Amino acid sequence: MTATALVWVVLHGVVQPGNALAFGVFIALGELARWEAVPRAAEPSGLEGPGVREPAPLGAAGALAYALLGECAGEPTGHGAFQVVAVVVAAALVGAVPHVARGQGPALDHLARRVLTVAFAAVCFQPLYISGALDLRLGQGPYYALFLLVLLVLTALCDAVLAAAMLRARTLPGLGGAGGTPVPFGPLLRDELRALLGIGSAVCATGAVMALAVAVAGLWALPVFCVPLLLTQLSFRRYAAVRTTYGQTIASLARATEVAGYTRPGHAHRVAALSTAVGRDMGLSGPELTVLEHAALMHDIGQLSLVDPVPEGATALLPAAEQRRIALLGGAVVRQTGVPASVAAVVEQQADPYREQPLAARIVRAVNAYDDLAGGSGGSAGGALSALEQLRLGTGHDYQPEVVESLARVLGRVLA
Predict the structure, then answer these.
(1) Which end of the chain has fewer CB atoms within 10 angstroms, the N or the C?
(2) Helix pair 227-259, 201-217: axis angle to 10 deg
(3) At 281, is the secondary structure helix, strand, or coil?
(4) Exposed, middle or buried, 278 (CB in 10 Å: 0-12/13-18/19+)?
(5) What is the C-alpha to C-alpha distance for residues 148 and 89, in angstroms, rounded to an integer?
(6) 313 φ/ψ sector (left φ>0, alpha ψ -120 to 50, else beta)
(7) Binning pLDDT at 50, 70 and 90, where does residue 18 land?
(8) Please, are residues 50 and 286 in contact by the beta-carbon 8 Å criterion?
(9) Higher pLDDT residue, 262 or 62?
(10) pLDDT score for 42
């Protein structure tokens, strides 16, 4: 798509170069002011949270405004969809040069998503505007505003679908990602749609308002109407920094039992990774999945209160009363760390009979038992099958059958 757009611009020339230069500079500055969307340190999958899905909102809003630009200071424009794509790609690459020089260049999937999303909006708007169909059928009244609103909703949905597909691709071996536990598309899409209520809605609204403002006031409207989004970007940057620190704290607490020799190396992160995958498979998303992940990371923290360590940290092999005691000790520790009470409640209830547990506690208990029974050999088909068989035998009282079957599906995808 980029190659076609660039060839078209070379053959036909740049239409209204002043507008193209102004929007190109604006998009480049937006990319220059981008902040790196660091994945949550405590999340085993390494996927971004909804608050950090758009690292360059100014650039995204400027690109969307150019795609929806019909007039500039009352004069009609005619740049078309191909020129929109060419300007956006060129500006994004120019704005990325300083980041590349520092070894922090933007991820290619973010750039590809930007180009595809903007191209979708431009293809839906520019041909209709240039042909005069919009003026003929809608005019410049409320119907035109309604058309822009519908187009923004469709563009946001397109972006959410692309983002979810790219996040899922990161967990699929052979698709350019790091591989890992494959994530179902449905929960990822729900997360992205929920994230649209945050920075996504701000980007769409600012892009549309800038396009309408430039149509009336000219290019001077660009710096004026970007101020609200700039303030929003600064707020999200602080939020992301706090969230990253919070995740690092939880990850450090999760490693405490391993460093002290109470659990096997990697046990907490294996349980968290599998629990997150099972939670997604069972339809959890958003805050529920975050609570599950953090509880799984800290599920063994109560072992630090024991005088004598449990052999290999395998709490699933202990009597039920001892499991509950360790779980309550863990919950008490978690409550003193400032972690939300919902996480501590899951840690405390992980050893209760499953009919008395919330879903997150049922998942943590089953996955922890699986890792204990498999002896950390989750990659061995024989060890996995043996552990799953023992879990199925305990579904009458200890483990919810639906959770065990979900775990089996997740392991089937991993071991396939």
Answers:
(1) C
(2) 160
(3) helix
(4) buried
(5) 23
(6) left
(7) very high
(8) yes
(9) 62
(10) 38
DSSP secondary structure string for all residues of 160-214? HHHHHHHHHHTTSTTTTS---S---HHHHHHHHHHHIIIIIHHHHHHHHHHHHHH
210 closest CA partner among 199, 224, 190? 224
pLDDT band at residue 107, thresholds of 50, 70 and 90? low
User: What is the amino acid identity at position 203?
Assistant: V
Q: Is residue 72 within a helix (H) or strand (E), and if so which, with residue range?
A: strand 71-72
| Contact status, residue 313 vs residue 267, Cβ threshold 8 Å | yes
d(CA 28, CA 62): 9
Pairing state between β 71-72 and 75-76: antiparallel
Number of other residues whose CB lies within 10 A of the CB of residue 260: 11
131-148 pLDDT, tens digit per residue, is 888 888 877 778 888 888
Q: Which residues of 18-33 are buried (b: 16+ CB within 10 A; e: fewer)?
A: ebbebbbebbbbbbbb
Q: How many CB atoms lie within 10 A of CB 252?
A: 12
Q: Distance between CA atoms of 255 and 148, rounded to whole angstroms?
A: 50
Are the C-beta atoms of residues 268 and 298 closer than 8 Å to each other? yes
pLDDT in tens, 189-245: 888 888 787 778 888 888 888 898 998 888 888 888 777 777 777 777 787 777 777
Q: What is the pLDDT of residue 181?
A: 58
The overall longest dimension of the chain from CA atoms, in Å, is 81
Weakest-pLDDT range from 27-36, 119-128, 336-345, 383-392? 27-36
Neighbours of 379 (CB within 10 A): 11
CB environment 89-112: b (16+ within 10 A), e (fewer): bbbbbbbbeebeeeeeebeebbbe
Helix (H, G, I), strand (E, B) or coil at 71: strand
For residues 378 and 385, give the distance between their C-alpha atoms in angstroms, rounded to a whole number: 10
Q: From residue 69, how far is each of 135, 150, 222, 292, 310 by CA, in Å?
A: 14, 16, 12, 44, 66
Distances in Å between the Cα of 4 and the Cα atoms of 7, 19, 62, 67, 162 are 5, 21, 22, 17, 21
